[in-house]
């Protein structure tokens, strides 16, 4: 009813009538729609606009898609990617006064320094130092770019989870994945542009707002998917409804909806809804196809640690991530770690031994597999948590949260491999050289995707909002 | 601000600067507050509400009330006219959903069709306004604006045990037609206005409805965040001002300074905060003592207090020149919020009445007069019909702020009754001349919200439990959703009859929107939402097609249809389904589509060799039914629930 009556892109009303209105019904419509490939549309006040159309980035992108491996709870940089000889040297000694006052979550500032739990070694040709906690990632060291000088603004989990995902410590802002979907659209109209695979244990601190779309249209929010028979909520037809049965129900729906539109002047929003049923139907095929791993070779599965413990679960999700980006999903985010996850307050050794064992091989396998298939060149893989951990001990064997200095790892297109960028102070407490704030990380990720973080904006409640608020600079030092 | 106060502020700042030896920074941070200029005041929304006479029109015969003068005169200027009225079946459905969020029952439809008096339409409006379902429907609109939820948000997302009392207060206030000025006053200062009356204090739940992090590290950070949020939400909800832009620096586009922001925040400065890890009270509590001094927080940083400020109102919206009194005269509270509530509801406040009439209009007409209901500032949209907006604001105030009278006014207009479908010769021209329907040359078609879709499905399938009020209920969540929550965050209500209560009564967890509402664009409760997105997505279709909820509604509807017909009678089934769902008889082609579906579906289920036990059998049957016939009808009902007509209102 709004907007000029162009039924859908490229089809005018006459064509619409010829193709559909004359009683050919849902079958003809299905054909048109499968060619048209529209996952979702959204009407703001202005009428039907295809929000998921592929958009041209601001400049030539280095990568087309992102796989974000989120280590929930905060992995310890000083035990994994940021070797600190001084921590060994001054082990057991309280942090020198010269470091000034330190804001911590659990008042550990005066506790003695805890040396790295496992030794670091130079790896690969580059000699990038990585801890023995991560023997598999160590093997792909020459593909990794470790930013050792990252920093955020809060010592708390939910605020930091929000910040790492949305740029803001407050809840309810649009997430990185939703900004990317908004900025670039979707290449595969049978699947959402932004898929999230939470840890099956659940319990992410901060919850679903971490992949929400905030004030951006709901179309852009992360769709949660999981391995197994029911990968997307309500994807499968109800238990007592067979495929054939549903097909005829759907065709009745389309038939009645199509004639409903005829009496309503081909209202765009009604037409969009007719299309959404076609797409729902196709998703019912596309999504199970993604999670069906039968076509994957044994050697591939082995690479990810699928079929063995404790890597089977995370390995399966990593492989799913590859299968999704192969099919044009723009942004895939995986969480490792349930309620507690990598949050090693009590015992870093116990915690990180467990979590590294679950994830190290799958992460390395994913990078190797992407490389083998030529996908790593235009994919960005991100590894990191919401913050790192303190150099001081907590309860003797644990470590408290540290947002002031920690490591985030990039691998893939446009990024230099085998390098460490920036540094923390001698004990790993604060980012010191070339600090990289979360806003800078986000600016860099958008840059790699061909977008200028200052130009990717959305007008909301009186302001041109952006992912990086009023800050952010691209970390040029890591670009290849 | 009077010069004297300003000097005091500067003196204090100087003292602080000396004390903290930060004189060097002083120049940078002392961004001088800009005075309000005539140009600032010239923005339409800051001008006084104008006393406008409805303009003349050529075609008087279409006029039903003042609204039509404004709408029709604009249309006539473009060579257009009002669309003819929709038919009565369409109108009763429209009115019923708009006022109650529920479809009319077949009995209500019949009664309305048979009532040939001149008052039939007005009586219908009155009946719907008198139905408690009215308050339940309109409360959700307000709760969107009030960013209401029943938990804190953040990591622990702890339940706010008493938050539902505010929700019930909103419902009841709307149902008893509490005047809107009182509705505002109570939410700002119910406790100050009626000391000692706990039931009045509940309204201040508005102020403390935002997200909060009880375990945040520093008390000062928590208080700062909560007070800023409260100030921003007050601006958005009551005034359509985006004050939050001014918490870090002077507003970039509106004449609102950072001092304005923190002066308004000072009104709330006496709020009593619990100790760390303890939740806020469900009502606004004040300390007994003198309010603490308030400062401008430079760059919005709680660690950077700047100039000392006294409580005061936003200058640009204060042509009345009202001030916050020094003391309340009572020892319990500061009296500042009472002053704020008086200011907001002063008949000369340029924003309050305009903002609410725009909100009400939006929900009836499908688009607001000011396209940005939460932003009446410079960057907001301009009103399509400024004269109408002011006239409605005046009518509201003159009518003692009665919202029900405002509804009556809007619903009685010819503009509201227009057809949303092509009718008569004027359609083509209207669509061509007014493609976005900014001029209201026809009725907008409205997409129902997830809440209304759910309520309608429960209602037509006979499952709905219309019990009113009380703590939020927890219907079962899909397993996949439940596991994303921390343990015990969603304890399913034991009494199953509670699971089918109206959507407004579902427990509203900040960190988890109920899936059915989430998928249909319910806003998250982290900021005031004046206008929901309307998206059309494949997951919506999957929800209506495959969810357990849809299946259950189909089973119940099919059962009721069979019981009514008392036998296998496809024609009767189809008629009864259309009357129940769409308040009309089916068309000829709908009948033949239905007949061939029912016959074909039953036959193919049998041909498929499906065992009766593997079929979905209608619920609540009073007699027996052939399994294949029953299952085919269930599928038919499911199909009808998925029709555009089910979720779009003509």
Note the main attributes of this structure:
heterodimer; A: 480 residues; alpha/beta; 9-stranded mixed β-sheet; two-stranded antiparallel sheet; 13 helices; 19 strands; B: 650 residues; mainly alpha; 5 strands
Put the structure in a nutshell.
The complex is a heterodimer of chains A (480) and B (650). Chain A is of the alpha/beta class and 480 residues long.
Helix/strand structural class of chain B:
mainly alpha
Number of strands of chain B: 5
Major β-sheet of chain A, in short? 9 strands, mixed
Annotation field: number of helices of chain A = 13
Number of helical regions of chain B: 28
Strand content of chain A: 15-25%
Biggest sheet character of chain B:
2 strands, antiparallel
Terminal CA distance of chain B: 51 Å
**What structural class do helix, strand and pairing data of chain A support?**
alpha/beta
Choose one word for the global shape of chain A. globular
Which regions of chain A are unreliable across 5 or more consecutive residues at pLDDT < 50?
1-48
Helix content of chain A: 25-40%
Terminal-residue CA separation of chain A: 51 Å
Radius of gyration of chain B: 28 Å
**Greatest chain-chain contact:** A-B, 91 and 97 residues
Helical residues, percent of chain B: 40-55%
Mean pLDDT across the residues of chain B is 92
Beta content of chain B: under 5%
Q: Oligomer, anyone?
A: heterodimer
Uncertain ranges of chain B: 1-29
Your description of this structure?
The complex is a heterodimer of chains A (480) and B (650). With 480 residues, chain A is α/β, with parallel strands linked by helices. In chain A, 32% of the residues lie in helices and 16% in strands. Chain A has helices at residues 13-21, 26-36, 77-80, 85-89, 135-139, 157-166, 176-184, 243-262, 268-291, 298-303, 312-326, 348-372, 438-448; strands at 40-44, 47-49, 65-71, 120-123, 128-131, 144-151, 194-197, 223-224, 331-336, 379-384, 388-389, 401-402, 406-412, 419-421, 423-424, 431-433, 436-437, 457-460, 463-466. In chain A, helix 8 (243-262) runs antiparallel to helix 9 (268-291). Mean pLDDT of chain A is 87; it is low at 1-48. Helices cover 47% and strands 3% of the residues of chain B. In chain B, the strands form 2 sheets. Chain B has a two-stranded antiparallel sheet. Chain B has a two-stranded antiparallel ribbon with strand order 3-5. In chain B, helix 12 packs across helix 13. At the A-B interface, strand 1, helix 6, strand 8, helix 8 and helix 9 of A face helix 22, strand 4, helix 23, helix 26 and helix 27 of B.
């Amino acid at each position: 009813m709004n907007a000029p009556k162009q039924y859908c892109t490229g089809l005018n009303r006459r064509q619409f009538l010829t193709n559909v209105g004359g009683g050919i019904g849902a079958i003809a419509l299905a054909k048109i729609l499968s060619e048209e490939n529209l996952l979702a549309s959204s009407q703001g006040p202005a009428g039907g606009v295809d929000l998921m159309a592929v958009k041209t980035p601001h400049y030539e992108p280095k990568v087309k898609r992102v796989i974000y491996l989120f280590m929930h709870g905060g992995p310890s940089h000083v035990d994994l990617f940021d070797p600190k000889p001084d921590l060994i040297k001054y082990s057991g000694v309280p942090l020198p006064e010269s470091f000034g006052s330190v804001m911590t979550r659990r008042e550990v500032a005066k506790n003695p320094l805890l040396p790295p739990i496992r030794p670091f070694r130079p790896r690969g040709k580059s000699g990038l130092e990585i801890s023995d906690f991560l023997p598999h990632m160590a093997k792909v060291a020459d593909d990794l770019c470790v930013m050792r000088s990252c920093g955020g603004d809060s010592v708390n989990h939910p605020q930091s989870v929000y910040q790492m995902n949305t740029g803001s410590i407050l809840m309810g802002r649009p997430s990185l994945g939703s900004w990317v979907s908004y900025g670039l659209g979707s290449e595969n109209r049978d699947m959402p542009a932004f898929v999230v695979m939470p840890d099956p244990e659940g319990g992410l601190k901060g919850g679903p707002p971490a992949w929400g779309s905030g004030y951006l249209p709901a179309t852009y929010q992360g769709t949660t998917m999981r391995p197994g028979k029911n990968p997307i909520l309500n994807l499968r037809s109800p238990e007592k409804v067979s495929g054939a049965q549903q097909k005829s129900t759907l065709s009745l729906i389309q038939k009645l909806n199509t004639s409903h539109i005829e009496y309503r002047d081909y209202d765009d929003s009604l037409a969009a809804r007719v299309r959404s049923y076609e797409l729902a139907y196709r998703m019912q095929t596309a999504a199970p196809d993604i999670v069906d791993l039968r076509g994957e070779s044994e050697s591939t599965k082995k690479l990810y640690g699928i079929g063995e413990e404790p890597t089977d679960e995370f390995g399966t999700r990593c492989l799913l991530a590859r299968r999704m980006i192969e099919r044009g999903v723009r942004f895939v985010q995986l969480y490792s770690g349930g309620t507690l996850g990598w949050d090693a307050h009590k015992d870093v050794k116990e915690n990180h031994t467990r979590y590294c064992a679950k994830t190290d091989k799958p992460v390395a396998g994913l990078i190797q597999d992407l490389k083998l298939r030529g996908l790593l060149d235009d994919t960005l893989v991100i590894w990191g948590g919401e913050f790192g951990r303190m150099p001081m001990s907590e309860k003797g064997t644990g470590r408290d949260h540290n947002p002031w200095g920690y490591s985030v790892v990039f691998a893939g297109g446009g990024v230099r491999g085998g390098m460490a960028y920036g540094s923390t102070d001698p004990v790993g407490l604060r980012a010191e050289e070339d600090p990289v704030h979360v806003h800078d990380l986000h600016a860099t990720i958008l840059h790699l995707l061909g977008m200028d973080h200052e130009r990717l904006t959305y007008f909301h409640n009186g302001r041109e909002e952006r992912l990086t608020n009023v800050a952010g600079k691209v970390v040029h030092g890591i670009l290849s | 601000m009077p010069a004297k106060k300003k000097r005091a502020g500067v003196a204090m700042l100087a003292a602080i600067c000396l004390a903290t030896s930060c004189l060097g920074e002083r120049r940078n941070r002392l961004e001088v507050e800009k005075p309000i200029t005539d140009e600032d005041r010239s923005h339409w929304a800051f001008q006084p509400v104008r006393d406008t006479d409805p303009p003349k029109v050529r075609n008087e015969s279409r006029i039903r009330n003042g609204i039509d003068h404004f709408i029709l005169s604009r249309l006539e200027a473009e060579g257009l006219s009002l669309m003819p009225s929709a038919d009565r079946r369409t109108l009763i459905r429209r009115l019923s959903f708009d006022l109650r969020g529920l479809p009319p029952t077949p009995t209500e439809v019949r009664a309305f069709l048979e009532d040939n008096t001149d008052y039939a339409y007005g009586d219908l409006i009155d009946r719907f306004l008198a139905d408690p379902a009215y308050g339940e429907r309109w409360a959700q609109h307000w709760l969107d604006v009030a960013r209401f939820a029943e938990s804190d948000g953040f990591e622990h997302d702890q339940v706010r045990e008493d938050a539902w009392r505010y929700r019930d207060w909103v419902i009841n206030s709307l149902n008893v037609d509490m005047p809107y000025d009182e509705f505002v006053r109570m939410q700002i200062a119910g406790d100050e206005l009626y000391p000692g009356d706990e039931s009045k204090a509940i309204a201040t739940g508005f102020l403390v409805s935002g997200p909060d992090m009880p375990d945040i590290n520093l008390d000062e950070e928590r208080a700062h965040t909560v007070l800023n949020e409260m100030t921003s939400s007050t601006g958005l909800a009551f005034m359509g001002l985006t004050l939050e832009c001014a918490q870090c620096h002077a507003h970039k586009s509106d004449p609102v300074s950072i001092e304005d922001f923190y002066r308004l925040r000072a009104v709330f400065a006496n709020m009593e905060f619990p100790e760390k890890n303890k939740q806020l009270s469900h009502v606004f509590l004040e300390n007994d003592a003198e309010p603490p001094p308030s400062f401008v927080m430079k760059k919005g940083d709680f660690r950077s207090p700047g100039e000392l400020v006294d409580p005061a109102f936003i200058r640009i919206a204060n042509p009345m020149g009202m001030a916050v009194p020094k003391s309340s005269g009572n020892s319990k509270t500061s009296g500042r919020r009472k002053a704020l509530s008086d200011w907001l509801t002063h008949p000369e406040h340029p924003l309050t009445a305009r903002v609410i009439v725009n909100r009400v209009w939006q929900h009836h007409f499908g688009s607001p007069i000011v396209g940005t209901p939460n932003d009446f500032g410079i960057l907001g949209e301009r009103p399509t019909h400024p004269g109408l907006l002011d006239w409605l604001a005046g009518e509201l105030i003159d009518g003692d702020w009665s919202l029900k009278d405002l509804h009556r006014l809007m619903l009685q207009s010819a503009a509201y009754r227009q057809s949303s479908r092509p009718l008569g010769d004027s359609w083509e021209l209207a669509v061509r001349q007014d493609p976005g329907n900014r001029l209201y040359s026809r009725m907008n078609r409205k997409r129902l919200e997830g809440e209304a879709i759910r309520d309608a499905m429960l209602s037509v399938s006979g499952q709905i439990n219309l019990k009113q009020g009380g703590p939020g209920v927890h219907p079962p969540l899909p397993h996949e959703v439940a596991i994303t929550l921390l343990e015990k965050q969603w304890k399913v209500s034991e009494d199953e009859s509670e699971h089918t209560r109206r959507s407004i009564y579902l427990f509203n967890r900040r960190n988890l929107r109920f899936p059915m509402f989430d998928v249909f664009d319910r806003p998250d409760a982290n900021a005031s939402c004046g206008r929901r997105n309307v998206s059309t997505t494949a997951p919506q279709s999957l929800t209506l097609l495959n969810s357990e909820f849809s299946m259950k509604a189909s089973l119940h509807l099919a059962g009721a249809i069979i019981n009514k017909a008392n036998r296998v009678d496809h024609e009767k089934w189809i008629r009864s389904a259309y009357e129940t769902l769409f308040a009309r008889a089916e068309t000829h082609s709908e009948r033949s589509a239905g007949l061939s579906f029912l016959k074909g579906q039953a036959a193919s289920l049998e041909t498929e060799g499906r065992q009766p036990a593997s079929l979905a059998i209608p619920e609540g049957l009073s007699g027996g039914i052939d399994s294949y016939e029953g299952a085919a009808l269930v599928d038919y009902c499911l199909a009808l629930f998925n029709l555009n007509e089910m979720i779009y209102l003509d």
